[in-house]
Amino acid sequence: MAAMIEKAYLRRAPTERLPPPAERAGMLGWLRDNLFSSPGNIALTLVSILFIGWALPPLLRFFLFDAVWSGSDGQACLASPQLPEPGACWAFVRVWLSFFVYGFYPIGERWRVDIFFWALAFGVGWLAWLSAPRRDIGAVYFFIALPVLSYVLLRGMPPLGLVNVPTVLWGGILVTIVVATVGIVVSLPLGILLALGRRSDIPLVKVLSVTFIEFIRGVPLITVLFMASVMLPLFVPERFAPDKLIRALVGVALFASAYMAEVVRGGLAAIPRGQYEAAQALGLSYWRMMALVVLPQALRVTLPNIVNVFIALFKDTTLVSIIGIFDFLGTVGAARADPHWLTPFTSVTGYAFAALFYFICCYGMSRYARGVESRLAYRR
Amino acid sequence: MPEIVRPSSSSRTARRAGNIALQIALVVVAGGLAYAAIHNVAQNLANAHITSGFGFWNNTAGFDISQTLIDYSASTSTFGRAFWVGLLNTLLVGALGIVFATVLGFVIGIARLSRNWLVAHLAGGYVELIRNVPLLLQLLFWYNAVLKSLPQLRGSVTLPGGGLLNNRGLFLPRPEFASGFGSVLAVFLCGIVATGVVRMWARRRQDRTGAPVNIVWPALGLIVVLPSIVFMLAGAPLSFSVPRMGRFNVIGGVEIIPEFAALLLALTIYTAAFIAEAVRAGILAVPHGQTEAAQALGLRSGPMLRFVVIPQAMRVIVPPLTSQYLNLIKNSSLAVAVGYPDLVQVFAGSVLNLTGQAVEVIAITMAVYLFISLVTSLLMNLYGYAIAVEER
Fold this sequence. Notes:
CATH architecture of chain A: Orthogonal Bundle
Largest sheet of chain A: none
Helix content of chain B: 55-70%
Shape of chain A: flat
Radius of gyration of chain A: 29 Å
Strand content of chain B: 5-15%
Oligomer: heterodimer
Number of helices of chain B: 12
CATH class of the domain at 79-159 and 262-386 in chain B: Mainly Alpha
Number of domains of chain A: 1
Number of strands of chain A: 0
Order of helices and strands of chain B: HHHHEEEEHHEEEEHHHHHH
CATH architecture of the domain at 79-159 and 262-386 in chain B: Orthogonal Bundle
Distance between the termini of chain A: 64 Å
Number of strands of chain B: 8
CATH superfamily of chain A: MetI-like
CATH topology of chain A: MetI-like fold
Strand order of the largest sheet of chain B: 1-2-3-8
Structural class of chain A: mainly alpha
Structural class of chain B: alpha+beta
Number of helices of chain A: 15
Largest interface: A-B, 54 and 55 residues
C-alpha cells in the first residue's frame, strides 16, 4: 500500500513551456492576425499592396532617384540625353534657399536674423521643457524680453549701430516665424483676458468678450486680414498709417486671440470649484486667485490645446501671402515664377519643399502636444 | 463673551461700486475709440473723395466673372448682382465640399480603425500628412502644379463617357431634357414617397411582430424600375450634349473651371482628414461593453454597427463635425488665392477695388459669413437634438 502511494503521479517541477503554435506566433502569426484573418481582410490587404505598388515607386523615382540635385539654372532640370525623364528639381530649392529663409533682408545684416532664430529657439525650449528650471523667468523672457530684443534686432536701431531694415525687405521663413510668434505672444495674454471676461459676473465685460470671440470665430481669417489691411489705415489718422506687416500682425493676433480664449475657457472650466472656493476662503482677491491658484492649473491642463491652436496659427500664417506679405509661401510663389527656372517640375518641387517644412514643424508640435497630454494623464 | 463679527456689507457694496465704475470706464474707452475711429474714417474717406453708403449697390459692375450660376453680364449687371453671383459660388463649393468631405472623412475614419494593419496605417498616414500641411499650400499645389500642368486644348484627354480634360478645365456631357422628362421625374419622386410609406409600414410590423421585413426589393422597384419603365414609354426624353473640340475652345457640355475643381479638391481632401479624426474619436468613445452586448445578442457586424455603434457614436461626432463644416465654409474664402469667383474674390476683391467702399464691403462680407455660420450651426444643432439620447 505504502509503495503504491510513493508511485504518485505528481510533478515536482514545472514542465518546460511549449512554444506557441507556429501559426499564432512570430512574424507569421502577426501577418495572419493583422493582414490575412478573413477573406475580406485578404482582399483589403491586396488592394492596399496594389495601391502602394502603384503609387510609391513613381514617387520615389520622381523625388529621389531621378531628381536633379545641383545646377545653376532651369537648364539642368530639363530633359537631356543623360536624363531623359528628369524628376524633382531640387537644384531650384538649393539656389533659392537663402531667399526662402530671409527674403530680401540685406545679406550683410542676415546675422541679426540668425541671432533672432537662436534667441527664439532658446525661449521656446525653456517654455516647452516642462521640468526646466525657473520657467517663470522663461515666461518673462519669452513674453517681454524677447519681443523687445527681436524688434531692436530685426527692425534695427541706428544708435546701437544696427541699420534700419524696413519690413518690406523681410521675407520667407523669417516672416512666417515672426507672424506666428507675434500671434502667440499677443494672443495668449489677450486670450486669457477674453476668457476671464467671458466668465465674468460683470454684464458689460461679458457681453463685449462674447461678442468679440463669436464674431471673430464666425468669419474667415482672410476677411479679418482684408479688414486689417484696408480698414485699419482708415481708422487712424493718415500720418500714423501702419505699415503692411503691422496690419497683418494685428489681424492675425486678433484672430488667434479669439481661438485662444475658447481654449483657455475650456481649461478654466476643468478646474474644480473647490479650488476657487479655497482661494476665496484664504482671502485672495480676484486677480490673485486667478494668477496664483486657477490660471497655473488651467494653463497646464490645457497646454496641449494651446499647442494645437498654435499649430493652426502656424498653418494660417500662409494666408498673409494673399494680402501681399512675403512669407515663406509667398517667396516660394515668387521664386517659382522666375523665368530662369521655367521647367515642368519647378512648381511641384517648390511646393513639395514648402510642404516638407510645414509638415516637419506641425508634426513635431503635435507630437509634443500628445507627449504633454499623456504626461498629464499619467500624473492624475 | 466674544462679540460675533458679521461680515460687513460695506465690502460687498465697495465691490459692486468697483464693478459699476469698471463698466462705466469700459463704455467710455470703447465709445471714445469708436468715436475716434469713425471720425478718422470720415476724414480719410473725405480726403480720398469716397462717399460712404450703399449707393454703389445699383451701379453697373463692368467686370467679368468666370463662373456664374445666375445671369450676369459685365456691361449691364450691377455690383449687387455680382454679390449674389459670388455668394452662390461660395455656397456651391461649400455644399459640394461638405458632401464629399463627409463621405471621404467617414471612409478614412473607419479605415483608421480597421483591423487590417496596412489599411489602418495608410489611413493614418493620410490624416497626418494632410492635417500638417497648410490648406493654402495644398490649394496652390492642386491648382498650379497639377491642374495647370494638364495638357493644352489640342492635347485634351478624352475621358470614358465623353468628357474632356485639359488645362482650361473639365468638360462633361450636359444632360438635355425633352418634354416628357417631367413625368419621369414625377414618377421618381412618387417612388421615393411610396418607399417612405413602405418603410414606415415595415417598421410598424417589426415593432408588432418582431419579424424584420426586407424592403430593399420594393424600394428598388419603386425608385429605379418604375421610373425606368416610364422613361422608356415616354420615348427616352433625355440626350447628352457631348463636349467636342472647337478651334479655340471646347463647344458644348458642362464646363468645370480648374479654379473650382482645385478649390473643391483641396477643401474636400483637407477637411476629410479632420472629419476622419472626429469619426474615429466618436467610434472609440462607444464603450466596449456595447459591442460585446451586441455580440452577445447575436448581432452580426453589419447590424451591430448600424443599430448599436453608429447611433451612439454619432452623438459624439456631431459637435466636432459641425465645427468642421463651419471651417470648410470659412476656408472656401481661400478661393481668392486661385481666382475662383467666390464671395471674397468677387465682392471683397473686385467690387472693393472698383468702388473703394472698404468699410461697407468688408462689413457685408463678414455679415454674410456670420449668417452662414449661424444657419449651419442651427441646422447641425437641430440634427443633434434629433439624435440625442431619449431618456426614459
